[in-house]
Amino acid sequence: MSATTDLTEPAVSPAEPAAADVTRRRVDLGRFRELSLVPAILVLGLIGFIVSPAFLTSDNLIGVLQQSTELSLLVLATTFILISGRMDLSLESTIGVAPVIAVWLVLPTSGGRFNGLGLLPEWTAVPLCLLVGALIGAVNGFLILKLRLNGFIVTLGALTMLRGLQVALSEGQSIVELPSSFTYLGKASWLGMPAAIWVCGLLFAIGGSALAWLRHGRALYAIGGNSEAARTAGIRVDRIVWIVLIAGSVLAAFAGILYSGHYGSISATQGSGWIFQVFAATVIGGVSLNGGKGSVFGALTGVLTLQLVVNVMTLAGVPPLWNQFLNGAIIIVALIISRFASGEKQE
Amino acid sequence: MADTATTPPTGPGTPAPVAEATGISKRFGATVALRDARIIVAPGESHALVGRNGAGKSTLVSILTGLQQPDTGTLRFSGEPAPDFGDIDAWRSRVACVYQRSTVIGDLTVAENLFLNRQSAGAVQPIRWRQLRRRAEELLAEYGVAVNPAKRAKELTVEQRQFVEIARALSFGARFIILDEPTAKLDARGIDRLFEKLRDLQRQGVAFLFISHHLQEVYDLCSTVTVYRDAAHILTAPVAELGHQALVEAMTGESASKVTATIGERLAPRSDSAELLAIDGLTLPGVCEDISLSVGSGEVVGLAGATASGNVQVGEAIAGLHRAKDGRITVGARTVRTGSVPSALAAGVGLVPEDRHLQGLVNNRSVAENATLTVTAQLGPFGTVLPARTKAFAGRMIRDLDIKTPGAATPVSALSGGNQQKVVVARALATDPHVLVAIRPTNGVDVKSKEFLLGRIRQVADDGKAALIVSDELDDLKVCDRVVVMFHGRVVAEFDHGWKDEDLVAAIEGVSGEAAPVTTFPASAVPASSGADEHGR
C-alpha cells in the first residue's frame, strides 16, 4: 500500500497542508453559518428593551415562546421536508382539519352547538388527530412518490381541499366544546412554563439530533443534495421521503392540538395563510429551498426572529394595520442579512 | 473495510471471472437496449468496453451494477450467481461503479460521502463524527488519496472526486470496478495520475471495466477490449492484437479508411487571407495575460492547453462570456465589447460551448427550439416566433448537420450524445457566423459523429469564414491549420500543420525541450475556474 502513496504524494502533497488549513477555517465558519440570525435576535432584544420596559419580563418572553410553538412545529416539519428536497404546502390546512375531523368523530351527536358523530370515546381525540395527520401525509406521499405527480401542485391542491373539508365539517364555525384531553397540552403549565413550550423544545431537540447524528437523518441531506447519488449509495429514497412527509403532517396535526388547546377552540381559519410565514422562517433560518442544506437550529432562530419582530412592534405601539407590511419587509431584510452573513447565493 | 480490501485478490483455486454476463437482453418499450449481450472480465484484468453512443454500454453498466434487471440472461460474480435485485449492499460488495455523473453529494464532507448510509453501525445508533473522520482518513491513506476528509465534496477537483469515488467503491470489498468515461472531464495530467492509480490497484488484484470514447486510452491502459454495436456484442480481443483501424471498423461496422481520409485531406493554408478574428493583448484577471491571436478567413486555428491553461476562457471571452481587464477583440472590422454576448453575436461570433449539458441545451425542449435559440429574431415579425418558420429552419439544420432525430419536435434529451452535440453546433451555425468558436467540440461524442463535426467545422472555414477550435484533444487539433498552445495563461508555442504528437503534448504540458519539467504547479493545484464550472450546478 505504501508504494501507492509514494507515487502520487509528491504531486499533490505540497499544496495539501495549506489547503487543509483553509478548509478547517472554512468549516468553522460553516458551523457559525447557522448562527447567523443570532445577532439579529440579540439586536431585536436590545430594541425591545429600549422601546418598552415590558419587553424583558418573563411573562412577555414566555408569551412570545408560547406564540411561537405552533408555528415552530410547522417550521420543524418544513425543515425536514425541504432538506429532503420536497415541499408540502398543505401543512397549513392540516393544522386545522386534523383537529376538526378528530373532534367530529368523538363529539356527541346532539346537545352542543357542534354535533359530531360520537363514534369513539372522547379520550381518542388526540390519537385520532395524529392519525388523521399521518393519513394526510401518506396520501400526499402516495400522489407524489407513487403516481409521480408534481409535489408543489399536489400539496397546493391538498391545501385548498383540506381547508374546504374543514369548513364543510365545521359548518364554518369555531368549535368551542372540546374534550378536556384535547385541550390539556395547549393549556397546561409545567414547572412555571406552558407545557407546549416544553414539548416543542423536546421535539426540536429530537429532530435536530436525528438530523445530526442518525444515519437516516443524514440520508435526508443526501436525498436533497443528489437523490440519484443517494439511491446508488443504497438509501431507500422514496421510502424515507414518504416517512418524512408523514412525519411532517403528524407534526402539523400536533400543532393543531396545541393551537386548539391554547385558544380553547378550533377556529375555522386556524392556520390559514401560515405557510408563507413558515417558509419564510425556514428559509431565513438557512434551509435551502433546493434541498440538502440547513439545520433545525437555524430554522428555530428563523421562527424566533419573526415572532420577536411582531412582539417588539406591538410593544413599540406600531399600529396593527402596519403589521402585515412590516412582516413582509422583515422577511426580505432577514433574507438579505442571511445572504451576506453566509456569503452564499440563494437560488 | 480495511480487512476486506487487503485480502489476497484471488484464491489458490481456479480463477473464476470476477464478472460474467451471458445472453443479456433488455428492452425499454419498443427500443432494444441489449440483444443477447455478453462480457467476461477476468480477475485483475483491465477490460475496455467501447462502442458508439447508443451501443448499449450504459444499459450493460446498470445491469452489471444491479440498478436494472435484465429481461433475460444470467449474471455471475466470481462464479457465484448475482445477488437478488434490490439487495444493494450485496451488489456493492461484488461490483462498484464510478459513474460518468458524479455520485458524491457536494454539501456533505468527504468523510460522510465515503461512508454514506453506513456512517454508524445501526439505524438508531448515533454517528460518531470524530471516529468517522478517522476511518475516512485511514481509507484514503490506504489507497494513497491525498484529500482532507473534512473538506466539503464540492470543493474537490474532478480528479480528487473520482479518487474519492474509487476509494469508496473499493471500501465495500468489491474487486471489480466499472469506470464510465472517467477521463471525460480530466486534463492530460489528471488522466496520467488516474491511470497511475488504476495500474496500482490492478497490481493489487482489482479488475476494471473501462468505458471510454478515447481509443488511445484503451490502448494505453487496457489489456482486453470488448466492442458493442447496435445493442449487441461484436467482438472481444486482446488489445495488442487489434489495430486501430480494426477497432474503429468494429465500432462503426464500416471501413475506417474514410476517417483518415477526411482528416488527412487538407487544403493548403492561405497565408494571404483576410484577418477575420483578431485578439490583441487580451487579459482576463486570474486567467490569462496579454494573449494575442489572429485567425484569417478560410483558416482553422487550434487553441490548445490543459484544463488550467485558460484556453477555454479565452474562447469564451471571444463569445462575450467574460469581461476582459485589458485588450481588444475584433471580428472583421468590428470591435466586440468584452463581456457582452449580444455584442459578440452581432459581430458574428458563433460559440459551441464546452459543456453541452450546462451551457448548451435546454434539455426538455425540442430539437427545433434548441437549434433556433440564437436566431429567433429571424423567425417572424415583431418579436413573434412562427412555428412554420421554426420548423423549416430546424429542418434545414437537421439536414445540414445530419442530426439523427425522429423529428424536429423531439425533445433534445431523447437524442444520443453525438446528436445532441450536433444540435449545439447547429445552433452556433444558425446565425451564419463569421467566426466559429468551438470549445471541445467532440467531447463525449462517438467516432463517427466526431469525424463529421470536425469535417463540418473545416467546411465553415472553407466557406471563407474563420474557425477556432479550443481543445486539448489531439484529434480535434489535427484538423487545424495552425495550433496555438497556451500554458498557465500565456501563449507558449505555435505549431504549423504537420506537428508531431509528442511536441504538441509537451507544449500543452509545459514541458519544453530539455529544460526541467514544470511540475511546481500541477493542474489540480490551480483553482481552475473551468474545473469549478464543470462540477458546479
From TrEMBL, chain A:
It is a multi-pass membrane protein. Its main location: membrane. GO terms for molecular function: transmembrane transporter activity. One of its GO terms (cellular component) is plasma membrane. Coiled coil: none annotated. It is found in: Cell membrane. Keywords: Cell membrane, Membrane, Transmembrane, Transmembrane helix. It comes from the Bacteria. The chain crosses the membrane at residues 35-55, 61-83, 95-111, 123-145, 152-169, 189-214, 240-259, 271-289, 296-318, 324-342. This is ATPase. It comes from Streptomyces canus. The lineage of its organism: Bacteria, Bacillati, Actinomycetota, Actinomycetes, Kitasatosporales.
